[in-house]
Every structure is written in C-alpha cells, then in structure tokens.
Amino acid sequence: MENIAILGSTGSIGCNALQVIKLHKEKYKVFALTANENIDLLAQQCVEFEPHFAIALNQEANQKLKKNLLALNSKTIVLEGDESLDWIASHKDTNTVISAIVGAAGLKPTMAAANSGKKILLANKETLVMAGELFVKAVNHSKATLIPIDSEHNAILQVLPQNKKMNYKSNGIRKILLTASGGPFRTFSKEELLLVTPKEALRHPNWVMGKKITIDSATMMNKGLEIIEAFWLFDIPASDIEVIIHPQSIIHSLVEYIDGSTLAQLGNPDMRTPIAYALSHPERIESGVLGLDLIKTKKLDFEAPDLNKFPCLGLAYKALDMGHNAPTVLNAANEVAVDAFLNESIRFNQIAELIEFCMDTIKSEPLVSIDTVLDVDKKTRYLALSWIDSHKLSA
Question: Which GO terms describe its biological process (predicted)?
C-alpha cells in the first residue's frame, strides 16, 4: 500500500488525483490532504478518504476545518503551523507526495519531499522555475523519484525509452516539442489584446483549471514556465525546446529523435491520464478516461506561436539565457502581475511589461540556497507591487 500526501487537494490536480486513487484503493492510501481555504471541499475529502492528517494553510479556515471534522466524527488529525506542510511531505510514512499547490507556496514542502527521498509527482511548476538547480540537486542527492504530472512533460516521459535516464543525452533526442492550445486569445490581434478582460481570459477553450494557471495559459506564460521545467527535467538546452500551437490539445507533446522519428503522446484533454501514469510509472493503470476517438477528432492543426502578441513566451527563454535568479524573478513578477490583472489593477498587456521590468531591474546573482531563492522572490514581489502602484489602469 502506497501512502500518498496531496499538497493542494482541493484544486484541479488534487481533485483529479483523488478520482484516480478512488479507482485503486487496493494500491493507494491517502495519508494527508492539504488546501488553502476551501474548507467545505477539504472536509468532504477527509470524510471520504480518511487521511491521517489534514491542514488548511489559512489559519481561520483551519480552525473551521477542525470544528467541521469534529462534528462529522472524523478521525483525521488537523495540523497547525507554517511548517506542517514540510512535516507532512517528509513524514516517514509518506511514500508519495503529489505537489499540486499553485505558486511559490509549494516550493518549501516540495523541497522537503526531495530532501527526504520521496516519490514526487510534480504539478507545482514554480519549484523547478524558482529553484531548478537546487531542486534537481536535492532529488539526485537523496535518490528521490521525480515524475512530472503536467500533461506536456508527462507526455514526453511517456515517449522516452523507459530503461534509460530521463534526459536527452542518453536517449538520442534532437529536440522536444511542447504543444500549446494557444489559449482563448489565439486568434486575437495585438490591438484586441489590449482590451481583454479577466472574465474573457478565464474562458479556456479546452481545459478546466484554476484561475492563475488559466491566465498563464492566456498569456502563454504557462508554456514559458513549462520550457523552464523541461530544461531541468530532461537536461536539455533551451535551444532544443520548441513550442508549437495545437488548438485541439490532443497531442500533448512530441519528441524528435536523431534518426528523424518523431513520437507523440495523444489523448483526450483530461488530467487524470497523466496523473494515473505518474502514480503507476512505468506501468499503466485505469484512469477513468475514455480512449481517443480519432474519427471524431477529424483533424489536428499546428501553427507557430506569435512572440509579438505573446511576449511572455519569449521572456521565459530570456530568463533561461540570463540564468542565476532570472527565472525566480520571472515567476514572482508573473504571480503578482496575474493577481493584479484579475483584480483589474493592470491590463492584460501590462503583465509582460511588468515581468520584463523586474527581470531587467533585479540584480543577477546565483541561487546558493532556498533562503536566497525566497529572498529574491520577496524582493521581486515588492518591486512588482511598486510598479503596479505607478501604472494602475494605464494604457
């Protein structure tokens, strides 16, 4: 029986993971569940899956969770304190950690899992974006297992030879191709993008996701973050990572080999598929997802991304080229910018402007520890908020 801790159980990834686990109760036991403040759903999950531990990061919500579970006669222990996530992620009885917390908040507990040699199913992009070198070193040092849940990186993993290391040098890879839906504004002109609203940006054509990742998809920063992830996951240079627009979201990514072969992983756009593969890797288990109907699909379209309309994609390549703390700055500035856009403090086009300003302003320095990463993150957020104060609702 594999004990699983889900960090971020009430989000899209967490809920889908629980659906897959529910199909395989003989294999997997939910050991711990965490959320931010969606207490009603977290309480329901605790009653259904009976984890040993649970925690809500919002203190007020956590007290409410305690009362709710007590009234429901739940045996789940509700933890308290800022270090509880790290404690759960590194607990001796935790075998697998599903890192599904959105944003920088997922960094420390995911690092704790890495340092403890856990099997890590990674959906938290920010861990690799903010601290890729430190995180990979921790994984290798402790001999932890790292498996991506992102549909794109999971797709790459699925078409790599399974008897070799997860990197391009030992697999005869020429390049990898990350597919992108193009988001809701793929066909918009640059002028039309100036006027888009948060409500419009939250209407993703293919995927149902949280607000932050949905806005990232609209700006194509989501794909930019995935470029940085791929750089660290597969030990492949940025010049060999290509992004292609594929509106149907049927091909989740491709790998081109040196012999001219290109292998792709196809499937319906449903996160249960990569989650199931990550849980059972290198075997396969039932995910609850129907097989792909190629006749109904009819056609697959592809086009090159427009970096002029979607500059966030280019900023991700720029961050990798700059190295050191630049990806950390990019991530922090993006989180602040997305929040400001959702609150209608800045316009859609200003998201990229703010990110580039922070990348060009924050001094470049190597990341020698997690404390250094968090310090850069803090400085960037302060700078970004100052920029927003002076640019609110400007054209």
Answer: isopentenyl diphosphate biosynthetic process, methylerythritol 4-phosphate pathway involved in terpenoid biosynthetic process
55 is in an annotated binding site: no
Quick check: 94 and 118 in contact, CB under 8 A?
yes
Give CATH 3.40.50.720 domain extents, the chain. 2-148
Tell if the pTM clears 0.85, that is, is over it. Answer: yes
Would you tell me which CATH number, out of the four given (3.40.50.720, 1.10.20.10, 3.90.960.10, 1.10.1040.20), belongs to the domain 2-148?
3.40.50.720
Is 124 annotated among the ligand-binding residues? yes
| 152 assigned binding-site residue | yes
Residue 311 has pLDDT above 60, yes or no: yes
Q: Is 141 annotated in some ligand binding site?
A: no
253 belongs to an annotated ligand binding site = no
84 known member of a binding site: no
Residues of the chain within CATH 1.10.1740.10 domain(s) are: 323-391
Retrieve residue 67's tokens.
């009362």
pLDDT tens-digit map of 109-157? 999 999 999 999 999 888 999 999 999 999 999 999 999 999 999 999 9
Residues 306-326: what's their mean pLDDT? 95
- Which pair of structure tokens corresponds to residue 181? 């839906």
Residue 125 marked ligand-binding: yes
**CA quadruple 111, 2, 281, 292: dihedral positive or negative?**
negative
Q: According to the annotation, is 150 in a ligand binding site?
A: yes
Q: Following DSSP, what letter does each residue of 221-249 receive, concatenated?
A: HHHHHHHHHHHHHTT--GGGEEEEE-TT-
The predicted-structure confidence for 258-304, as pLDDT tens digits, reads as follows 999 999 999 999 999 999 999 999 999 999 999 999 999 889 999 99
Q: Which residue has the tokens 């809701």?
A: 184
94 Cα distance to chain centroid: 21
pLDDT at 169: 65
Report CA Rg, the chain. 20
Q: What are phi and psi of 178, to 5 degrees?
A: -90, 125
DSSP per residue, 154-206 = HHHHHHS-TTS-SSSTTTTEEEEEEEE---TTTT--HHHHTT--HHHHT--SS
Complete edge-to-edge strand list for the sheet that includes strand 96-99: 77-78, 53-56, 28-35, 2-7, 96-99, 119-122, 145-148
Instruction: Indicate the CATH number of 323-391 among 3.30.70.2190, 1.10.1740.10, 3.30.70.640, 3.20.20.70.
Output: 1.10.1740.10
Q: What is the three-class DSSP state of 4? A: strand
